[in-house]
Amino acid sequence: MELHILEHSLKVASIEKEGIQVCTHGLIKLAFLASRTRCKFFSLTETPEDYTIIVDEEGFKELPQSEHISVADATWLALNVVSGGGSASSSQPIGVTKIAKSVIAPLADHNISVFMLSTYQTDFILVRERDLPLVMHTLSSEFTLLRVVNGETVAAPHLGVSNGLVKPKLGTMPRPIIHPLSSPSNMFCVTSLDPDTLPSVATLLMDVMFYSGGSKDSGASGEDSSHIRFFSFSLIEGYISLVMDEQTTRRFPNNVLFTSASGELWKMVRIGGQPLGFDECGIVAQIAEPLATADIPAYYISTFKFDHALVPEENIQSVIGALRPESAAAAP
């Protein structure tokens, strides 16, 4: 398999809920008027706590300076696993559990922190730019490493260095789950739409992204306190990805959103009781490895404060069982 190191230099930032109005103009431009910017990588995810944005340096220039924006203190690079050749965005989703043991676990074993963004099309593994030599050293034995330069894929120069850590032997003990897990009551859809149809639903999407959360949350909380606000929009190299709850999808006209043949619904596992930060290693591996062992597919979206795994609705009980600390401790 090939591991593509994309050319985008990325910023990860948090926008406070009360400050979103200051940023709305720039965010709307990035989401709906991308042709008027030089931005090629943009993702916006709303959680109950805040908005997380992942954006390349050109796109970041569209946002104002504001006390409501907190920026992670590193430049990030996006990695993408491609099997069987072809571009990352045109291949089928590989799923974070399919790369758990080949990418996620080795990086965790070498104390390399990752930030995950699964989309409808593929999975992006974000690593700090300064960690790239160690990343390349860690993964070079399993992958053909390629860099994307000016849109062209070329062989990556060997920058690999070791940090002296020895690769663990197979069959070592499972990683303990050290952060609290919760599963909101709402069900989610992972979908997309044709960029040509984006103008026809732009007003609706703007309302979902910026204006309808407050009223909807208050109504939902009265009925079900475990129902949470979560919405993710990504526009990456011309491809759109959307993650929204089932109720929100009903607001869209028929035949606008892509759906799988099964119309699959996904349940969420939220990781973290307190904000996770960016320095701890192995959080994604703690979740992805047990799911991979159980052969359960998953999307995984990291945000500024918490992580989120999406698993098929019918698998949620198996997932909870696989991720319980006591089940990990009891595993042979």
TrEMBL record:
One of its GO terms (cellular component) is cytosol. One of its GO terms (biological process) is negative regulation of TORC1 signaling. One of its GO terms (molecular function) is identical protein binding. Residues 9-69 form the CASTOR1 N-terminal domain. It is found in: Cytoplasm, Cytosol. The keyword Secreted does not apply. It comes from the Eukaryota. Residues 179-261 form the Cytosolic arginine sensor for mTORC1 subunit 1/2 ACT-like domain. Pfam families: ACT_7, CASTOR1_ACT-like, Castor1_N. Residues 73-140, 263-324 form the CASTOR ACT domain. Keywords: Cytoplasm. Its main location: cytoplasm. The keyword Transport does not apply. PANTHER family: CHROMOSOME 1, WHOLE GENOME SHOTGUN SEQUENCE, CYTOSOLIC ARGININE SENSOR FOR MTORC1 SUBUNIT 2. Belongs to the GATS family. This is Cytosolic arginine sensor for mTORC1 subunit 2. It comes from Salarias fasciatus. The lineage of its organism: Eukaryota, Metazoa, Chordata, Craniata, Vertebrata.
